[in-house]
Design goal:
- The chain is an all-alpha fold.
- Helix content is 74%, strand content 1%.
- The protein has a single domain (55-307), classed as MetI-like (MetI-like fold, Orthogonal Bundle).
- Helix 3 crosses helix 14 and helix 4 (76-89) runs antiparallel to helix 11.
């Protein structure tokens, strides 16, 4: 085709295939690929939840509706266990604040930051049972902690950390903070490394100090990841502390460190009251689900607010 023909037709050969219209995304195509995973999840978790609810609403094969749930709620031991879980939730602000400060310091290149990063994350890599056995030995009445305090002539501060009802839950909370802190630091540090550095430079040029920079620049950009970590740790403190309690205190002394998971375990396998254990597990499932749903609602509302 000569130049005249090209000019007449308005066509020009560039050696590349003509671009077609963009393909429309079809949601059902993604569902095809997700179907095997969804089926596995539905089979494993869906059937387990179904059996749990059936066990919680029946007693010796007879349907009792919500009667078992009411018995569990009225049980003072269950209330104590639930109260201890809620007290452990009070450690959330401490975990988040300390993890955030450490992550910021590591991000700013404090001296020896590579060593500190590894040292902080190592506890999270240890199995909970190992951590529980280790601190179970350290915090006994004649353990290494009290022996060290006596050597330093600070015996006044010695306590029966795991045997005193006033200190057992606090000691347990301290161990949980020590181990869970590493995950938060690495999570926050990864987010900080992805933030644009020119924003911080602009804040310094404008005369913002360290605290003002973190409050007005860092925290707003870290809000989503802080919310994610908050939900993960809230679920952990409500339904994933069994190993800590079982290894370190067994729920004692008395009911001082009893949590909902140990309450469920004892009723299911020690007291042989499966319907009561199932009822307590159902209540725990409802509570954890409520936390997750509340987070999703707040995130959706926040997104709508920002879009407006």
């Amino acid at each position: 085709m000569d130049g005249t023909a090209v000019a007449a037709t308005g066509e020009r050969h560039t050696g590349a295939a003509p671009r077609g219209r963009p393909r429309r995304r079809r949601p059902w195509q993604a569902l095809i690929w997700l179907a095997p995973a969804l089926a596995s999840i539905g089979l494993v978790y869906g059937y387990s939840i179904y059996r749990l609810v059936m066990e919680a609403t029946h007693r010796e094969g007879v349907g009792v509706g919500l009667g078992n749930l009411r018995i569990a709620i009225d049980d003072p031991f269950f209330r104590t266990a639930l109260g201890n879980n809620l007290r452990l939730l009070l450690t959330l602000p401490v975990i988040i604040a300390v993890a955030l400060v450490i992550a910021i310091l590591l991000h700013e290149g404090m001296r020896g930051w590579r060593f500190h990063r590894v040292a902080i994350f190592i506890p999270y890599m240890l199995p909970v049972t190992v951590v529980g056995v280790l601190f179970g030995e350290l915090l006994t009445l004649h353990g290494a902690v009290n022996s060290t305090l006596q050597t330093l002539h600070l015996a006044y501060f010695s306590e029966d950390w795991l045997g005193d009802p006033d200190w057992a839950l606090r000691s347990l909370a301290g161990v949980i903070i020590w181990r869970e802190l590493g995950f938060g630091v690495i999570l926050f540090l990864a987010r900080l490394l992805s933030l644009p550095g020119n924003v911080f430079d602009a804040a310094r040029v404008d005369g913002a100090g360290w605290f003002r920079t973190q409050w007005h620049v860092t925290l707003p950009m870290m809000r989503s990841i802080i919310g994610f970590y908050l939900v993960i740790e809230a679920i952990t403190l409500m339904s994933w502390v069994f190993s800590y309690v079982f290894v370190m205190t067994g729920g004692g002394p008395g009911q001082a460190t009893q949590v909902t998971e140990t309450y469920i375990y004892q009723n299911a396998f020690t007291s042989d009251i499966p319907w009561l254990a199932a009822a307590a597990a159902t209540l725990l499932l409802i509570g954890v689900t409520a936390i997750a749903v509340l987070f999703l609602i707040l995130r959706w509302a926040y997104g709508r607010r920002r879009a407006a």
